[in-house]
Amino acid sequence: MTGLTFSFKLFLLIFMIAVGVPRLSAAQITPDLIEAAKKEGEVVFYGAITVSSSKRIGDLFEKKYGIKLRHWRGDATELINRTLAEARAGKPAFDVTLGNEVVMTALNEKNIFAGFDPPSAKSFPKQFRHSEHKMTGWRVLPYGINYNHQLLNADEAPKSWEDLLAPKWKGRFGMANPGIHVTTLQFVLNLDKLLGPKWLNVVEGWAKQEPRLARSLAATIQPLTAGETPVIIGYIKDKFQYQGPIEYVRMDKYLSSVSFVAINRQAPHPNAARLFTDFFLGPEAQKLFGDLGEYVFHPEVEHRFKKDVRDDQIVVMRLPSNEELKSWSTKFREMFQ
After folding, report:
1. How many Cβ atoms are within 10 Å of 197's Cβ, its own excluded?
2. What is the CA radius of gyration of the chain?
3. What is the pTM of this model?
4. Same domain for 171 and 69?
5. 267 & 249 share domain
6. Which domain holds residue 50?
């Protein structure tokens, strides 16, 4: 996983220089912490995982510890806006959150997260171990081309990003709007890793194809499964996580973001937050996500991409600068009208 290791190490180096916080000692899940967490009674979790996934995790957590999980689901943009609004108001409501590197770095720059070194993540791949423990990587999210297999067979589906420029796909594929959805903006800005200098011409070509635009990746699913848009750009894990005739195109390389989990430094339920985070990263919860199609890191857990997606096909996306995010979001809003 050479490209993955290099990209992530570069990200860590930039992050460490920017933040400059002291190293924390290893955390422990002690009987006293568990008892204090039980007295708090609940943990509030923000993140863009499916409601069914959070319910299954919450049921497992409550069965084991008697602590309820309350989940709020929002996309990347909504998560940033809600979290920062709570912080400005001095009324932080969440205990634990997850998101990709764009989301989590933006929040960490505002000093939102507490340091925590979860014992259950000790054996995760070293390239995903954040040295300052402000957040813990737990999965990668490969982007690809998904299609409705009741409308298209594998031979009929587009095979590459350039194939979406063919006249037959005009008005017939969907995507989250890169002008307003930060994760898709990051994906588009990283297409140069696969397409080289022609990446922008391809993206401009997509805009001219009049794709069906959505505010989030999740919002592209219903039109796909209903047959309104036979093809979408999205996470290939959607095949396993949504009901309906979803299949993904097998590609040579997959641009991928890293997803992290972190604790609010002003968590209303700080002990429950630590207990839940450690549980979330442990084999019981990670197996559930692996079975659902997540590309998880826990060494004891198999994921469902083993046969189709190799580690050396994963290309970790670089983290755009704040200036890039601001300038390109404006350009993409104009481009994708």
Report:
1. 7
2. 20
3. 0.73
4. no
5. no
6. 2-140+256-308
CATH number, domain containing residue 150: 3.40.190.10
Q: In which band, very low, low, confident or very high, does the pLDDT at 128 lie, cut at 50, 70 and 90? A: low
Q: Is 249 helix (H, G, I), strand (E, B) or coil?
A: coil
> In total, how many domains does the chain have?
2
Tell me what the pLDDT averaged over the chain comes to: 89
Write the DSSP symbol of residue 157: S
User: Are residue 78 and residue 123 in the same domain, yes or no?
Assistant: yes
Q: How confident is the model at residue 241 (pLDDT cuts 50, 70, 90)?
A: confident
Identify the CA nearest to 206 among candidates 148, 147, 163, 152. Answer: 163
Kindly state the DSSP code that residue 27 receives in the 8-state scheme. Answer: P
Nearest partner of 98 among 146, 47, 173, 156, judged by Cα? 47
| Residue in 102, 252, 261, 119 with CA at minimum distance from that of residue 182 | 102
CA–CA separation, 169 and 225 (whole Å): 17
How does pLDDT run across 180-218, given as a tens digit for each residue? 998 899 999 999 999 999 999 999 999 999 999 999 999
CB contact set of 30 (below 8 Å; sequence gap of 6+): none
Q: Using CA atoms, how far apart are residues 337 and 210, in angstroms rounded to an integer?
A: 9
pLDDT at 23: 35
DSSP string, 166-207: SGGGTT-EEEE-TTT-HHHHHHHHTTHHHHGGGHHHHHHHHH
Q: pLDDT tens, 41-64?
A: 999 999 988 888 899 999 999 999
Nearest to 46 by CA among 8, 84, 15, 16: 84
Residue 231 parent element (H or E): strand 231-235
Report the C-alpha gap between 19 and 281 in whole angstroms. Answer: 24
Q: Determine the Cα–Cα distance for residues 225 and 149; give it in Å rounded to an integer.
A: 9
pLDDT per residue as tens digits for the range 110-125: 999 999 999 999 988 7
